[in-house]
């Protein structure tokens, strides 16, 4: 059972978003999973793309679309490779998966 999140997430819309953008895994991390999440907090999102898929500048559009799907909150979209090596292992172990490609 997944913990209750402080934001509303439509799993169907997240799945459609991921399929359209060739994302094989989408997870949440950071303050959205902790007690210090506030109305002003951004939502940290970790994505893993399908092999060979590189979004380039389209990542900006993806962030905007995700922001809309997550209640118009600021979204910080990251891939595992972009995470600092100092926090990568912790983030990967604590991230809460919202979508996994079948």
TrEMBL record:
A Gene Ontology MF term for this entry? ATP binding
The residue ranges of the Polymerase nucleotidyl transferase domain are: 16-95
Among InterPro entries, the record links this protein to: NT_sf, Polymerase_NTP_transf_dom, Type-VII_TA_antitoxin
| Cofactors, names only | Mg(2+)
Q: Which UniProt keywords apply?
A: ATP-binding, Magnesium, Metal-binding, Nucleotide-binding, Nucleotidyltransferase, Toxin-antitoxin system, Transferase
Pfam families according to UniProt: NTP_transf_2 (PF01909)
Query: What is stated as this protein's family in its record?
Result: Belongs to the MntA antitoxin family.
By what name is this protein known? Nucleotidyltransferase
Per the UniProt record, the source organism is Phormidesmis priestleyi ULC007
Which taxonomic lineage does the organism of this UniProt entry have? Answer: Bacteria, Bacillati, Cyanobacteriota, Cyanophyceae, Leptolyngbyales
């Amino acid at each position: 059972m997944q913990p209750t999140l402080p934001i509303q997430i439509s799993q169907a819309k997240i799945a459609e978003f991921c399929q359209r953008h060739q994302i094989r895994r989408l997870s949440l991390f950071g303050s959205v999973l902790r007690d210090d999440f506030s109305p002003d907090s951004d939502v940290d999102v970790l994505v893993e793309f399908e092999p060979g898929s590189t979004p380039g500048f389209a990542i900006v559009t993806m962030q905007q679309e995700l922001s809309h799907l997550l209640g118009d909150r600021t979204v910080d979209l990251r891939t595992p490779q972009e995470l600092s090596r100092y926090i990568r292992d912790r983030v990967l172990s604590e991230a809460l998966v919202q979508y996994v490609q079948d």
